[in-house]
Recover the amino acids of this structure.
């Protein structure tokens, strides 16, 4: 990967064939023709991402266990966490909506975080985890369906709609979701798939040598 | 010309859509795999345009019930109201939550309509092998991919409200059939956007340079 004179890349959005150039840390390469982001160099991306992912996973766990919001009106109250909300939706015969929320706000983010731990933990000590190419592909496929940040906004809108008729009791998970949203954004900014693929290339070369 | 340079495809190279490695693939392209990550290679997303059209048409069909049918039913001892997406936004605005009303209006009304129209236009321009404004069209596609997910907002709001209010006895909030159709529109347009290959915008430019 250090040898920039021989490696070609193609822009994923306009397919322009380009020669890869080495960048200073923190800089990003952009396609000269269509402006697509091509690649960037990051320092310590594996370790930093791993740290952020572990923090996000812990907070995400808390966010899913504790109630998000409680409401109260004339001594009559209720509180729910996200799973409670989806199962209530399921009971109201809204199966599609329930499944959609369950998948996009619980299943995909959990899968994403646990897969990243599984991939980054061995890589950070220089080992290549089994099934890496397949899992990277899977990760790329499910990524658009993880919508924690949209859900966070959804909580805020729901909160505003409820303030007219109820007293709102913010739950622990409300703050946790805020934290998870920020941490996931940080993960997105730090994680550099290029570094992961570089490890794979290394391993293939080592195997070919003997 | 303004847009000089060769596409990888025109020189017989193909980039892996998973790991980005560029490799040469011969005439018999079927079944070629990426030498680094073993993903099946193809120059352009196979049947992307047809699948994008199919998903888009399905989304257009669902768009009507999504906007015309009730998305949320609210009832309490003293009041009862049925809301479509638009009437929900109007209600928010009239109750003084203008900021939130604008956010919901953008996420639930502007974004889905924008996605449907923009993808249709992109598909038609690719079909006509248009060479006009490729940079802007690519940017438009990038925007479609970026904003599409935010339409899920209303689905989350309805779920949270229905669950919370259902659990206490003074009032009820129920999701209506419009919510199902709306969820369908969001999912279908997201799949449609994924099936569109922005490289098709640039392919007709090859002959000119």
């Amino acid at each position: 990967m250090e040898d920039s004179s021989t490696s070609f890349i193609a822009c994923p959005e306009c397919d322009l064939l380009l020669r890869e150039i080495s960048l200073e840390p923190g800089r990003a390469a952009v396609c000269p023709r269509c402006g697509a982001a091509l690649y960037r160099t990051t320092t310590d991306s594996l370790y930093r991402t791993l740290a952020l992912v572990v923090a996000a996973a812990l907070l995400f766990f808390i966010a899913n266990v504790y109630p998000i919001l409680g409401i109260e009106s004339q001594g009559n109250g209720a509180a729910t966490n996200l799973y409670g909300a989806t199962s209530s939706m399921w009971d109201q015969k809204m199966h599609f909506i329930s499944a959609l929320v369950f998948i996009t706000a619980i299943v995909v983010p959990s899968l994403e975080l646990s897969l990243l731990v599984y991939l980054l933990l061995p890589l950070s000590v220089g080992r290549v985890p089994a099934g890496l190419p397949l899992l990277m592909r899977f990760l790329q496929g499910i990524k658009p369906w993880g919508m924690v940040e949209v859900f966070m906004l959804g909580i805020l809108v729901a909160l505003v709609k409820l303030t007219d008729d109820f007293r709102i009791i913010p739950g622990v998970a409300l703050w946790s979701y805020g934290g998870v949203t920020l941490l996931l954004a940080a993960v997105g900014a730090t994680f550099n798939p290029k570094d992961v693929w570089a490890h794979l290339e290394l391993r293939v070369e080592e195997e070919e040598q003997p | 010309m303004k847009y000089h340079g060769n596409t990888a495809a025109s020189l017989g190279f193909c980039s892996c859509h998973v790991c980005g490695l560029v490799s040469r693939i011969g005439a018999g392209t079927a079944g070629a795999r990426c030498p680094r990550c073993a993903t099946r290679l193809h120059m352009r997303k196979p049947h992307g345009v047809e699948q994008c059209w199919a998903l888009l048409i399905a989304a257009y069909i669902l768009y009507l019930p999504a906007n015309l049918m009730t998305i949320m039913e609210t009832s309490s001892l003293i009041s009862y109201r049925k809301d479509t997406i638009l009437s929900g936004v109007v209600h928010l605005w009239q109750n003084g939550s203008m900021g939130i009303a604008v956010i919901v209006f953008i996420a639930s009304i502007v974004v889905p309509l924008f996605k449907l129209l923009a993808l249709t236009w992109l598909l038609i321009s690719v079909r006509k092998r248009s060479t006009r404004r490729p940079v802007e069209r690519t940017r438009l596609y990038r925007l479609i991919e970026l904003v599409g997910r935010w339409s899920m907002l209303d689905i989350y709001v309805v779920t949270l409200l229905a669950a919370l209010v259902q659990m206490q006895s003074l009032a009820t909030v129920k999701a209506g059939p419009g919510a199902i159709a709306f969820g369908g529109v969001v999912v279908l347009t997201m799949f449609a956007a994924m099936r569109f290959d922005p490289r098709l915008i640039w392919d007709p430019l090859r002959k000119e340079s």
About this structure: The longest strand of chain A covers residues 69-73.
